[in-house]
Amino acid sequence: MSPKNQTVINEFQLLAFGDLHRFKVVVFLMFVIIFILTIIGNLLLIILVSKCCVLHSPMYYFLCHLSVGDILLSVNIVPNILRASLMGGAKIKFFNCFTQLYFYSGATVTECFLLSVMSYDRYVAICFPLHYTSIMDFNTRVHLMAWPWILGFTVNFIGMGIITNFDFCKDHIIDHFYCDFAPLQKISCSDTSLIERIIFVFSTPIFIVPCGLIVISYISIFLTILRIPSTAGKQKAFSTCSSHLIVVGMFYGTLITKYMTPSQGHSLLVNKIISLVHTVFTPMVNPLIYSFRNQDIRRLIKRFMS
Where is the G-protein coupled receptors family 1 profile domain (predicted)? Predict the structure, then answer.
C-alpha cells in the first residue's frame, strides 16, 4: 500500500457490549460490584498472609503472589469495561492499547508459572513431607516467587515487539472490551501469517510447559495419596491441594477454550463471555475458593472481621 493511501491510526474504538446498551446501568453496577469484591478479596488475603504468623509458609506466600497477579489483571481490564459499558463503547489510544495488551499478557503468563510453582509446592509437601522444610528453604522460595514475574514480563517483549509492527490502515473498531491479539490481528492490514506462526512458536511452550509440570506433579500427588493407609489421612492430603486444582481448572479451562480452539468454533459473543470469565470473574473467585476451602484462612477471616 502506498503511503498516500495509508491512514495512520492513533486510537481504537472498543465496542465492548454495545448490544446491551438498554441495560448499561445494570451492567455497569454489576462490574463495579465485581471489581470491588475482587480488590477487597485479594487484598484481604495478602494482608492476612503478611500479618498472621500461622500463614507464614511457602504455600501462602505463593498464594499472595497469585492475588497480586489477579489484582493486576483486574485493574488492567475492568476500568475500561466500566467506561465502555456506561458509554456504549470507549476510545483507547494506540499506546494505551498495546500497554494494556502487554500487562494482560504479562499477568496471564505469570499466573501460568505461579500455578505450576504452587503445584510443585504441594508435590513436595505431600510426597516428601519430612524434607519439605529443607527443600523449600528461603532461597528456593525467593527464586520460585521471582522467576514467574521475570519470565512473565520479559518474554512478552518479543511478542509486543512483533505486534506493534502491525499496520492499521483500514479499520480502527475492535469488537471486544479490551485489546487482545486476535481482534488486533483481525483489523490489521498487514500480512500477519508469519507473525502468527512466530507468536505461536513462542507462546506454546509458555502454556504447555507449566501445564505439563502441573499434570506431572498431581499424578505423583495422587499416587502418593493412594498409598496412604487411613481414609482421614487421604482426605487431609487431598484437601490441601483441592483448592489449587479448582483454580487451575478454571484458569487453564478458559485459556484453552479461548486460544487453543479454532476461532470458527465460537462466535464473538462466546469469545467475549470466555474472556470475561478469565479476566473478570476468575480474579474475583480465586480468593473465595481458597478462603472457603481452607480452615486456617476461614478462622483468621472471622477473627479479622470481629
Answer: 41-290
Mean pLDDT of 17-40: 84
Task: State the Cα angle at 68 between 63 and 71, rounded to 5°.
Answer: 125
At 300, the amino acid letter reads L
Residue pair 14/178 in contact (Cβ under 8 Å)? The answer is yes
Please report which confidence band the pLDDT of residue 60 belongs to, taking 50, 70 and 90 as the band edges: confident
Handedness of CA 42, 78, 284, 110 (dihedral sign): negative
pLDDT band for position 3 (cuts 50, 70, 90): very low
Cα distance between residue 303 and residue 100, in whole Å: 38
pLDDT 10s digits, 173-227:
888 888 887 788 777 777 767 777 777 777 778 888 888 899 999 999 999 988 8
Q: Which residues sit opposite 14 in a β-bridge?
A: 90, 174
What is the C-alpha separation between 266 and 270, in angstroms, rounded?
6
For the chain, how are helix, strand and coil distributed in percent, rounded to 5? 80, 5, 15
What domains appear along the chain, each with residue ranges and CATH number? 10-305 (1.20.1070.10)
Distance CA 288, CA 250 (A): 13
CB 280 within 8 A of CB 31: yes
Average pLDDT over residues 99-111: 91
Q: Which residues of 159-198 are buried (b: 16+ CB within 10 A; e: fewer)?
A: bbebbeebebbeeeebbbbbbbbebbbebbeeebeebeee
Which pLDDT belongs to residue 160?
77
Q: Helix 193-226 to helix 94-127 angle, to the nearest 10 degrees?
A: 20
Cβ proximity of 119 and 248 under 8 Å: yes
* Residue 262 DSSP class: -
